[in-house]
Amino acid sequence: MGAGGLRAKGSLEAKPGEDQEGGVVISDSGKVPPLVISGPSGVGKGSLVGKLKEEFGDAVGLCVSHTSRDPREGEEQGVHYYFCSRQEMEQGIKEGKFLEHASVHGNLYGTARSSLEAMQTDDSMCMIDVDVQGCRSLREAGVEGKYVFVAPPSMEVLEERLRGRGTEKEETVQKRLANAKKEMDASMEKGLYDKILYNDDLDEAYRELRSIVKGSMQTVLARRALSTALQAAPVQDAGTQNQEIDTSKTTPIIVFVLGGPGSGKGTQCGLLVDRFDCVHLSAGDLLRAEKDTEGSQYADLINSCITNGKIVPVEITCQLLVNAMNAEMDNNSKSHQEGGPVFLIDGFPRNLDNFEGWTAESGGIARVVLFFECSEGTLQERLLERGKTSGRSDDNIASIKKRFATFQEETLPVVEVFRKSGNLRIVDAEQGVEGVFAEVQKILRADIPELGT
């Protein structure tokens, strides 16, 4: 993360699919980025992939490649490869049906677009096993993912492993060693792989591979847990049967309030409530309240996300927000401005998945998006000071750093979406509370005349 802090201006350091600290990462498509794995024959890729499958089961899916070679003993169609004729593969390549393809030892291999699309589901992480040439083609095709090259500790060890198989002729061994040397040299190409993983000890190499995909697997398992819970008992206990905003009586005015942790969103929302009789809904507060609700089926999941600085699945957050909005409009406990109550939704949407889920499921469109821009240094200082008295589990230095990383990687892209749509209003949150409030009032009076003076 750059020294410039948590700001919307300028380019982001984190590339799509990066997971430097095991944080949850979602690609621009909303899918978990695939693991693209390469390495020479005999290096142990199959063993590493097998250990992932053993631990995570069908939460890890292998994108099955096509090949023109004949099946070997024990290989099954559609499991190990899609076996087809050379003519069929050449025709598919000509028609652009393959993301990557290569000729290896005289046979064609390739990854079909349809194979990746079929495997890249919401509740699994897809793996793509390709050679260096295939990796380069996937990069050029714009496939977002985590690119890992598995290397032997030395060429001597690799040769020993290949000969230890006892299944290949000397000519084949020499050909594989020559190809391995080329692949290992090419793997050092800048920007081609995110990680070179040396497989000297299988268990140690697996621990390293597991740490690389930790964030992705956390996302997959969280989504699976949510899906299971929703199927078992749909969210209804908060007082509504669906996630749509009820506009039968009045049409609410929605203001999204975004900013890094500690930027003063909650403080400013409280001042706006007192000044303009708005309704403040904090996504974080609603989630913490749900976490502490006795018998909540989502308590453990929400607690894990909050502690680790992760983003709670959108279905839960949307449901809680919509329930609170509908309850406010049903109760009508305040005399709101003409045109409906003004809801200040604080800390939401926190990523593109939140934004898309809210748009699709709630029907609510924000008239204004306030973004409190502040440097990371100032934010950290504020949060550590707040942590002395807040009692919050995430106001500690470890959680703060994770929250900063999540904000940088996931929330700033949403801010850019709002910037392009024209309804983003940037507030300088480095100022004191009064200076920020004066700026916010000016913005809202201009954008929401219903507020009055």
Automatic annotation (TrEMBL):
SMART domains: GuKc. It comes from the Eukaryota. InterPro entries: Adenylat/UMP-CMP_kin (IPR000850), Adenylat_kinase_CS (IPR033690), GK/Ca_channel_bsu (IPR008145), Guanylate_kin-like_dom (IPR008144), Guanylate_kinase (IPR017665), P-loop_NTPase (IPR027417), UMP_CMP_kinase (IPR006266). It holds the Pfam family Guanylate_kin. CDD domains: ADK (cd01428), GMPK (cd00071). CMP binds at residue 354. Residues 282-312 are annotated as: NMPbind. Its EC number is 2.7.4.14. The keyword Cytoplasm applies. It is found in: Cytoplasm; Nucleus. Its cofactor is Mg(2+). It catalyses: UMP + ATP = UDP + ADP; CMP + ATP = CDP + ADP; dCMP + ATP = dCDP + ADP. GO terms for cellular component: cytosol; nucleus. Monomer. NCBIfam families: guanyl_kin, UMP_CMP_kin_fam. PANTHER family: GUANYLATE KINASE, GUANYLATE KINASE-RELATED. Catalyzes the phosphorylation of pyrimidine nucleoside monophosphates at the expense of ATP. Plays an important role in de novo pyrimidine nucleotide biosynthesis. Has preference for UMP and CMP as phosphate acceptors. Belongs to the guanylate kinase family. Consists of three domains, a large central CORE domain and two small peripheral domains, NMPbind and LID, which undergo movements during catalysis. The LID domain closes over the site of phosphoryl transfer upon ATP binding. Assembling and dissambling the active center during each catalytic cycle provides an effective means to prevent ATP hydrolysis. This is UMP-CMP kinase. It comes from Hemiselmis andersenii.
